[in-house]
């Protein structure tokens, strides 16, 4: 009888894991929305209905809206470069098919409202370069969304439709279209390393409690979601060191992905170089140390399996 109960429990857990995986697999939604194309003859309300009508689950409806925006709206480089992040009408976004972050988030909110899903936009800060670790921007520079699907605090979710649509280079001269599902109901801890709301009420989960503390953190990069980044040392993104002294790094990665190579990308433009480092990875802790031999102040990116995870600003001197 004991064996039977154990086997039944194992079967239940296995079935539950399959169900959970199925619930988190949005490939049917993604493929359906992609098949619809740009829907450029329709207004916002009709687009919302069209992309969501096949799905009963509210989470799938939100995913369909997220997909359509990420697939079809581009980042407005000219407005972004001029720090013009003012409210843009949904009609104009749909007409031009481009927006800054406030336009992305506003369109997402409006489309969710059509299908009776509560969504709010959040203004705040994001870090885009390592220079912002020591030079905080003059004003708010990003907007994203929060979605509520239930009554408990755990029923609030983060969505960043701007970053889901693609990315720009550091100088904001080029936008690369690239769908990124990590910003749909994003991991809250990692999201809070990258975003800081102007209103603390919209900080979901654990995160920094002041903008100065937020900007002092390292720049958390795209692969942080893939490797499920946890705590990290150095915790301050600005590293002042001597050329003769090794800097110790310890990074928590909650992943089963084999770590085959760790390297540091240092400097900018023609001075940029990459060095592999010896490392250990045990119980989710990635550890290594490095002596910086280039005397200057420059960005340093930690690469795991050649993918960017963390960015620091290093000042190395004699």
Notable features of this structure?
single chain, about 325 residues, alpha+beta, C8orf32 fold, Immunoglobulin-like, 2 domains, six-stranded mixed beta sheet, four-stranded antiparallel beta sheet, 11 helices, 18 strands, about 35% helix, about 30% strand, globular
Commentary on this structure:
The chain has 318 residues and is α+β, with helices and mostly antiparallel strands. It folds into two domains: 26-217, C8orf32 fold (Roll); 230-317, Immunoglobulins (Immunoglobulin-like, Sandwich), CATH 2.60.40.10. The chain is 33% helix and 28% strand. The chain is built from eleven helices and 18 strands. The protein has helices at 2-23, 27-36, 44-52, 58-72, 77-81, 90-96, 101-114, 161-165, 188-194, 211-216, 223-226, and strands spanning 74-75, 98-99, 118-126, 142-148, 156-159, 166-168, 175-177, 195-197, 219-220, 229-233, 238-242, 247-253, 262-266, 273-276, 280-282, 285-290, 296-304, 307-317. The strands form five sheets. Strands 9, 11, 13, 14, 17 and 18 form a six-stranded mixed sheet that branches. Helix 2 (27-36) packs across helix 4 and helix 3 (44-52) crosses helix 7 (101-114). The protein is globular and about 65 Å long. The model is unreliable at 1-23 (pLDDT under 50).
């Amino acid at each position: 009888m004991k064996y039977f109960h154990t086997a039944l429990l194992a079967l239940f857990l296995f079935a539950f894991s399959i169900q959970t995986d199925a619930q988190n697999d949005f490939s049917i939604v993604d493929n359906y929305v992609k098949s619809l194309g740009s829907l450029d003859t329709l207004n916002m309300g009709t687009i919302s209905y069209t992309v969501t009508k096949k799905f009963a689950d509210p989470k799938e409806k939100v995913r369909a809206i997220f997909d359509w925006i990420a697939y079809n709206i581009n980042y407005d480089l000219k407005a972004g470069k001029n720090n013009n992040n003012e409210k843009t009408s949904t009609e104009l976004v749909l007409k031009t098919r481009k927006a800054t972050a406030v336009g992305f988030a506003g369109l997402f909110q409006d489309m969710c409202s059509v299908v009776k899903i509560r969504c709010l936009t959040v203004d705040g800060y994001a870090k885009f370069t390592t220079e912002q670790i020591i030079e905080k921007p003059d004003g708010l520079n990003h907007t994203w969304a929060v979605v509520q699907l239930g009554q408990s605090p755990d029923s609030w979710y983060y969505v960043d439709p701007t970053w889901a649509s693609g990315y720009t280079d550091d100088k904001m001269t080029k936008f690369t279209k690239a769908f990124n599902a990590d910003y749909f109901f994003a991991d809250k801890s990692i999201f809070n390393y990258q975003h800081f709301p102007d209103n603390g009420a919209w900080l979901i989960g654990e995160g920094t409690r002041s903008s100065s503390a937020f900007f002092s953190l390292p720049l958390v990069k795209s692969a942080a979601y893939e490797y499920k980044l946890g705590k990290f040392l150095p915790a301050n993104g600005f590293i002042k060191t001597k050329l003769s002294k090794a800097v110790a790094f310890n990074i928590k990665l909650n992943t089963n992905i084999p770590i085959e190579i760790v390297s540091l990308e240092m400097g900018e433009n023609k001075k940029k170089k990459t060095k592999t480092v010896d490392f250990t990875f045990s119980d989710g802790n990635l550890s290594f140390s490095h002596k910086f031999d280039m005397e200057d102040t420059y960005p340093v990116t930690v690469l795991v399996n050649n993918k960017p995870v963390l960015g620091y600003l290093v000042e190395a001197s004699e």
